[in-house]
What we know:
- The protein has 15 helices and nine strands.
- By secondary structure, it is mainly alpha-helical.
- The strands form three sheets. A three-stranded antiparallel sheet has the order 1-3-2. The protein has a three-stranded antiparallel sheet with strand order 4-6-5.
- Residues 7-67 form the RNA polymerase III subunit RPC82-related helix-turn-helix domain.
Amino acid sequence: MTQAEIKLSSLLLCEHFGEIVEKVGTQLIRMGGQTLWMIAHNTGMSLDQVRKALCVLIQHNLVMFQQQKRGLVEYEAQRSRVLRILRYPRYIYTAKTLYSDTGELIVEELLLNGKMTMSAVVKKVADRLTETMEDGKTMDYSEVSTTFTCLADTHFVQRCPLPPEGSESTETLPSPAPTLVCNEKDMYAVPKLNLIGKGKRKHSDNTKEDGERAGKRSKKDTESKEPPPDSGIYWQVNIDRFHQHFRDQAIVSAVANRMDQTSSEIVRTMLRMSEVTTSSNAPYTQPLSSNEIFRLLPTGYNISKQILDQYLTLLADDPLEFVGKSGDSGGGMYVINLHKALASLATATLESIVQER
């Protein structure tokens, strides 16, 4: 990491979390993995301050930990993750364009808090939306829950890793650093919550309601002690999925500039069909048949199957090779060469910079 990147990371940590967290985070970025005692010694801070700072950094996925062979726990900064704080506004804006204000606030709350349960996010977002509504209108928990489910289905939010079940035993001493795991099948599985209620406003002009609320406060406090149904299931923003979305947008825009709007819409449809089934690091998408692409084209594009096949052939024969043909079954099997597309975009960017100079 360059000195400029270290300085930028330090400024970001200080702005978002304060000086204490900034000192601990910068120390880990500069020196690499260190134990709790080493961090306290090198920063001149107390163990309690270091512990609290590490809790904040771990909560926001900026520091990871692992147990050494000697039994000590070593903490290491996620350097690239710290720099991605700069992109938080873009993640939030993307969620707004895809899932309206509700999606925007869900992603914003998760980014602000690092990890949260679904029930906590739904209630907090419903309250915030109710605050912006006209008097007498409220936001139902069910509506926010539906949007949260859509974000999980499209992999923009995901479950956080947890200690494996049965790892704690009364016969043996607990490990100082539990190994966190996450089942891929459950990573985007939304728990079944029967959230019934509406968002509440912080300030009410009705003093009578305030008095009734104060009178029933003790009863509500006893009810709130019961754990929520999704207790222990925490969620976080899937940053890689947002980057995949940005990559897909760049590819679609490049195809539109090179050919036409119809070609870009065909590529957009292929990317949308593969966005959940294809890894963000995969060199190409899953093979898609011409018949599948034709069925899922937007209704606004009234093109025949024959014209679609002609467009796919033109895309496959293009020298940039954004689209490749991988078989003849199902009317022809096609893939998008993601790595070649990104390489072409990078080359075009460099060439334009050279021409400008």
